[in-house]
Amino acid sequence: MGGSDVNLAELIGSRICHDLISPIGAITNGLELLDMVGAVQGPEMELISGSVGSAGARIRFFRVAFGSAGDQPLGRTEVADLLKDVERAGRVRVHWNLTDAVPRNQVKLAFLALMCCESAMPMGGDVRISGHGDKWEVTGTADKLNVDGALWKHVVTGRFPNKITPAQVQFALLPESATAMGRKIAVETASTRVTLRF
Question: How much is the pTM?
Fold first, then answer.
C-alpha cells in the first residue's frame, strides 16, 4: 500500500464509522425510551441493549483506529471511557497509562497496536499502553498467546510474505501509519508477552 492508499483507507474508515454511529445512537435512544415507559423488560431487552452498546463502542474505537486522524488532542478521560466501553464487549483488559491529552494520530497508532495484541490473545489478557515523551509502548500479556510469527516479524517493515486477511488489517496499517508520522515499529515477543514500540 502506498501513502495515497492509506489516506483513502482512512477516509473510507471515517465515512463508514460516521454513517453507522448515527443509527446505532438512534437505536440506543429508542431502547432508553422503551425502558423509561416499561414497555419491554427482561433478558431480551438486556441482550439487545448490551449488543447495541458493544456495537457503538466498537464503531467509535474503529473510527479512531481506521479513520482519518490529525494532531488534534484526545483527552485521557475520553480515551479511557472509550476503552472501558470496548473492554466490556471483549476478553482483553486495557490499561491506558497516560495522564495528559495526546494527539489523535498517536492514539490511532496505539489502537492499531492494541488490535495487534488482541489478535495474539484469543483467551483474553491485559494490554498496557504507555508513553514516555514521544515514545509509545503497547504490551499485551496473557497466560496463553497465539502469535502469528510471520505477522509479528514483518509488522516492522510492513512487507508481508503472505496475503493479509481482513482480520489482520491492523498489521498492515500500523507500519504504514507509523511511517507517515516518521516513526518506526519495534517488536518483542515472548511466551506470555508481546510488545510494540513506536
Answer: 0.86
